[in-house]
Design a protein that fits this description.
Order of helices and strands: HHH
Radius of gyration: 14 Å
Strand content: under 5%
Number of helices: 3
Structural class: mainly alpha
Distance between the termini: 36 Å
């Protein structure tokens, strides 16, 4: 059971890191730094959205009920 707990902790940590990265990228986009910077940020945001989705998927495979409570930031549709 200890191994499962460790895997759950890692999955939650991955999800939290991915969500924080996505939030930071969105905040930077809101600052309006210019076209060149915004294009790079769009790429960064898409990559962060992918990481969040992948982290949620991994967490759901380990503990299907945990994705509703562990995730605080939803992907925009």
């Amino acid at each position: 059971m200890e191994l499962l707990d460790m895997e759950l902790a890692r999955a939650r940590q991955r999800l939290n890191r991915a969500e924080r990265s996505l939030e930071r990228a969105n905040e930077m986009m809101d600052e309006g730094c210019g076209v060149g910077i915004n294009l790079a940020l769009c790429s960064r945001i898409r990559a962060a959205q992918r990481r969040v989705a992948e982290a949620r998927s991994r967490l759901a495979k380990i503990d299907p009920g945990s994705t509703d409570t562990a995730s605080s930031c939803r992907l925009p549709m």
